[in-house]
Design goal:
Elements: E1 16-22, E2 25-34, H1 39-51, E3 56-67, H2 69-84, E4 88-92, H3 95-103, E5 112-113, H4 116-123
Helix pairs in contact: 1-2
């Protein structure tokens, strides 16, 4: 009989998602890792917010520490859903977000800003 107690367990740090409304802008703040285990946890509040037809959806990913393939896939789904309801999608992110998008050739599909103020200024 093998002792499995010393083997590493699949564990993902908790993902934190909060939602703020600023007029017709919806700001979704995310911290933690966006991976195959947590992507659905992030998706659910976003689908709820898009159902409310915001003019602008801002995903604040500045405190995301990992953005894997599931995160990239979810970003594409969110982009399509935002487009379907005519919401302007903006991402706030660092190299943690930008690099996977660029490596997959998808960086050109997203408007990524370093700060909320920069994103707001770009909206006009």
């Amino acid at each position: 009989m093998r002792d499995h107690s010393r083997l590493p367990r699949c564990w993902s740090p908790p993902l934190r998602v909060t939602v703020e409304h600023r007029g017709r802008m919806c700001l979704v703040r995310v911290s933690g890792e966006v991976d195959a285990f947590s992507a659905n946890q992030l998706a659910q509040p976003i689908w709820r917010e898009l159902a409310e037809l915001p003019d602008v959806l801002v995903l604040d990913l500045l405190h995301v520490t990992f953005f894997g393939a599931a995160g990239v896939r979810l970003a594409l789904q969110i982009r399509q859903a935002a487009e379907n309801v005519e919401a302007d999608l903006r991402l706030l992110g660092t190299e943690t977000i930008v690099r996977p998008l660029e490596l997959t050739g998808l960086g050109r599909l997203f408007r990524v800003h370093a700060t909320l103020a920069e994103a707001a200024a770009a909206l006009g």
